[in-house]
Amino acid sequence: MTLHIPQASLREALSQVLTIAKQIDAEGLSAAERANVAVSYVVENSSAPWPLALQRQILSDATKALQPDMQAPVATERPPAPPIATPSKAEGTSSPAPNEVSSGLMALSNEVVQALSEILDFSDLAGQPRSEQETLIRDSIRELSEDRKMHLNGREVTNLVNAVLADMLGLGPLEALLADDQVTDIMVNGPHQVFVEKSGKLELTSIKFRDNAHVFAVASRIVSAVGRRIDESQPMVDARLKDGSRVNVAVPPLAIDGPTITIRKFPSNPVKLDALVEGGSLTSQMAAFLGLAAFLRLNILISGGTGSGKTTLMNAMSQYIPAGERLVTIEDAAELRFQQPHVVRFETRPPNVEGTGEVTMRTLVRNALRMRPDRIIIGEIRGDEVLDLLQAMNTGHDGSMSTLHANSPREALTRVESMAALAGFAPGTGVVRRQLTDAVHLIVQVSRMRDGKRRITSISEIAGLAGDAVTLQELFTFDTDPSSTRTEVKGEFRYSGYRPKFATRAAEYGVGDELDAVLGTRT
User: Fold this and answer.
1) Which of 479, 399, 406, 407 is CA-nearest to residue 442?
2) Is 58 among the domain residues?
3) Helix (H), strand (E) at residue 414
4) Based on the structure, what is the number of domains in the chain?
5) How far apart are alpha carbons 53 and 366 in whole angstroms?
6) Which stretches does the entry tag as region Disordered (predicted)?
7) What are the tens digits of pLDDT across the range 54-79?
8) Structural domain that includes position 30
9) What's the whole-model pTM score?
10) CATH number reported for the structural domain that contains residue 404 in this entry
């Protein structure tokens, strides 16, 4: 069915578009851009149907009217592109989904980047300040928009400028995901597949890279910012972003389907235990207990799987460390964010191109012992540095903390023994177990459950040695309810009623009554 619009309606609509376009601030906008904005506004606010051909005609006539000195285009010239506006429901076309819009913007930004490579000298651009880079790129994009008659309105030009700036000076398509507070993890599996984690669940996004070279360029930009490199000779790299987010990059030939980038984001504001209580990760009683444990300088191991929230919990517990203490943190990629004023941070270094210059975790731990630390905090123990940490805990550096990968407190003890064997200790001799019993006070187990929530499933105290076995006393536990479903985990946190061995230390620190109040016990 053909919809006929009277000529009077065309004249009336054109007059309305011109009236609105002339009221728009012309600074920085071409006649086509002002006409496009005005057409978009009129279409969106009109109750009558607007066929696409009519929109094109009005856009063309309005552009000519706003540029009286320009010659009329010849009849064979291609008509201007239709305005980027939401089609009316009368045309039977639904509003485009946000994912489709972002894909179109990405495709357009890719074309613009290629066009800018012919206009701008990127080598000269790289040596200029960021503000001048942005100004030159923005001006060049506006010129391209006018020369190629893209007919973009002011908002679309701004979005395009931001996309191109992110592609050329930032992290490209990942910038939007990094700005989204709901996204906690970003996983790039080659150029055409980008997953994110929101509320503990994985989601496939519509964001895509141009090709493998585009992904590799973004990955190189990330690792070079922290003085590292990624290539075939070193195809795996751990790095970090400016905000402390952890990054892992792997490229071919190890990554078969193209370069991969995995980003673990950290919240912009420091996470506190109260926020974890509100999120259901633990109870207020458990939070108060862990706060006292950090204040009392207990040596704590936080155990859990990948992405279970070990580092987040350690950051949250750090708020209870007194401000007058000197902390030394050692990590493979710096991600701990303590709020104390006296924090010295170290980061391991991989070998250089010649295979020399490597600085290991164990070397940094030994160096930290000569720096008069009150506490030594290791981001994650995964090798022979565990022996130096245990010795530090046993030689006056109480209050030290670290994380490790294990599925339960008992498995965490086994892993510590296995890692100590890497330092030359024969497993099963009992030496490591005695050191472990004397050094570590608490093991906190964290799990990410199938419903996406992260919970503290156990807080256990090392009670001592029974023969040749380390005995554990569980203080808090999370008991799963049988009514749990495939998508929802139900249960409750329970306190065992056991009085911890460090109650004597709490009394020496003057917080014995506070510990009794938290546990609900009285001696």
Assistant:
1) 399
2) no
3) helix 409-421
4) 4
5) 75
6) 68-101
7) 777 787 788 888 775 434 333 333 33
8) 9-50
9) 0.68
10) 3.40.50.300
